[in-house]
Amino acid sequence: MESQFIMQIAIYSSNGVGRQVVESVLQLVQCLQSKGIAALLYEPFFRSLQREQQQPLSGVQLFTETKNLSPEEVVCLMSVGGDGTFLDAASLVLGTQLPVVGVNAGRMGFLPSISTDNAYEMLGHIASGRFDVERRTVLQVDGCTGERQYVLNEISLQRRGAAIAEVNIHINGEFLNNYWADGFIVATPTGSTAYSLSAGGPIVAPDAPCLIISPIAPHSLSVRPIVVPDSVCVELEMMTRSGKVVIGVDSKSHELPAGGKITVQKAAAQISFIKFRHASFYQTLREKLLWGVDVRG
């Protein structure tokens, strides 16, 4: 049955989420419908929501792949949850023109730009077209599995077990260094506020054309993160006596034999973000990191 609405917003969330996320989705659907916007729910989440609520939601349509959504009617894909949920949602729109926006029902969350407190107001901005779309860099990763992987935040290599790891890095075929560390991270500007930040990497504006290479717990005080142009190809090779390494690609991980070569470079495809005109990356930093707040009590 065709929707009576013209404008549509697709909603994504993960299965097995907490009560707070479920309530946020239910409120979001009601808010959309009150504004005359049709809600499309990710079908696997909808099925789990039915089991949770013990009653079906009314007035919603379902989708499983974004490629089946009408670009003339669907304004965006809306993620409800934390950063991990947002990364999963972003993977659904990779290579499409459909922008993604997040409602933060998790903890700190740098990627979601809407809080549950201001969701109604932000939906008004979306409905009236008062937003911009910005394109974010995506990395393509070869060698970690049988298929090419794509990441929005970062790829990480980490030791498996207690033995220290040795990481050799080449940039465009030129040897950079031989590192002794617990692992390594190659991050996009978007991912600079994620794992790379906790490993001592710099915060980078999301539109900067660069990649961040950060060691994890290096065993040398002289070793520091390095920022390189996003036009380069980074090759990593990790050895450890345990014989295994863990490869993290955004919110997913794989265990692989040590000694394999991983290549990382900027992908041709990008991911579109909704950017509200009254907000900025620097405002988000101040709010999330409590910059300028006197925490001395």
What does this 3D model show about the protein?
- Residues 1-5 have low confidence and may be disordered.
- The chain has helices at residues 19-34, 43-53, 83-93, 119-127, 195-198, 281-288; strands at residues 8-12, 38-42, 60-63, 74-81, 100-104, 114-115, 131-136, 139-142, 149-151, 154-159, 165-171, 174-181, 183-187, 210-216, 226-229, 233-240, 244-249, 252-257, 261-266, 271-276.
- It is α+β, with helices and mostly antiparallel strands and 297 residues long.
- Helices cover 20% and strands 37% of the residues.
- The protein is built from six helices and 20 strands.
- A hairpin with a 6-residue loop joins strand 8 and strand 9 (149-151).
- The strands form four sheets. A six-stranded parallel β-sheet has the order 3-2-1-4-5-6, sandwiched between helices. Strands 9-8-19-16-11-12 form a six-stranded antiparallel β-sheet, with no helix packed on it.
- It folds into two domains: 8-137 and 270-288, Probable inorganic polyphosphate/atp-NAD kinase, domain 1 (Rossmann fold, 3-Layer(aba) Sandwich); 139-266, Sandwich (Tumour Suppressor Smad4).
Layout of strands and helices, then pairs:
Blueprint: E1 8-12, H1 19-34, E2 38-42, H2 43-53, E3 60-63, E4 74-81, H3 83-93, E5 100-104, E6 114-115, H4 119-127, E7 131-136, E8 139-142, E9 149-151, E10 154-159, E11 165-171, E12 174-181, E13 183-187, H5 195-198, E14 210-216, E15 226-229, E16 233-240, E17 244-249, E18 252-257, E19 261-266, E20 271-276, H6 281-288
Parallel strand pairs: 1-2, 1-4, 2-3, 4-5, 5-6
Antiparallel strand pairs: 7-20, 8-9, 8-19, 10-13, 10-17, 11-12, 11-16, 13-14, 14-15, 16-19, 17-18
